[in-house]
Amino acid sequence: MNREKIVFCWSGGKDSALALNRVLNDDRYEVVSLLTTCNEHFQRVSMHGVRLELLDAQAAAIGLPLEKIFISQRSSNDEYQQKMSARLLAHKARGVTACAFGDIFLEDLKKWRDDDLAKVGMRGIYPIWKVDSRELIREFFALKFGTVICCANDAYLGEDFVGRCIDKEFIRTLPASVDPCGENGEFHSFAFAGPVFQSPVKFTVGEKIYRPVEVTYPSDFSSAYVCPTTGPRATKGFWFCDLLPA
User: Fold this and answer.
1) Which residue, of 17, 202, 203, 225, has the greatest Cβ tally within 10 A?
2) CA distances from 194 to 142, 145, 202 (A)
3) Res. 227: pLDDT tops 70
4) What average pLDDT does the segment 40-54 reach?
5) Residue at which a domain ends, from 90, 125, 160
6) How many domains does the chain have?
């Protein structure tokens, strides 16, 4: 049976790991590469703030090639779309027909992705789309994934949440307004253990850093998802936990 060749948009976080696990266990697909958007100025994973050394360590533990798409600090949606389209067209020339994502329920984000993919003649695959967040968390625990919070939006969570591993106590202490998977942009995570990894990614927890919105995201790049307007108050900045390679 010929499997469909796809690329996977890898953020390095919990939902991305859950979605990748489903794809890797689906005989219909062959993942040829991971794609990750990185901030060229900070030399870190966009939105998550994770060091590129740890991103490389994740890919090595997964056992898949990793391609980094670098965007400028003041990137716009146009820059992102142009660079992503160029990378996807190169894959399409090698027989890749689709790109997979770990999105759960943001309809406008999915439409934005699908519209961009259609321009290059590809389609989107969403392995955990419309799965209830509480069900995904149960799956996360059942599969024994290990994930640490690397970034928190201050409209929802404070400094005390970054650097914590996602466990049942973490979920229990989340405010009622926060989605258990952080799908509205409340928090981002770094996956370091679980069935997609051949061995755990080793790291240590470093200092906690607060960055205002205008420093972290000085342009309109994905602004609707970086700073959601559905929270209890406007986003002023983000707490990051600097994760260090061990």
Assistant:
1) 17
2) 10, 4, 13
3) no
4) 94
5) 125
6) 2
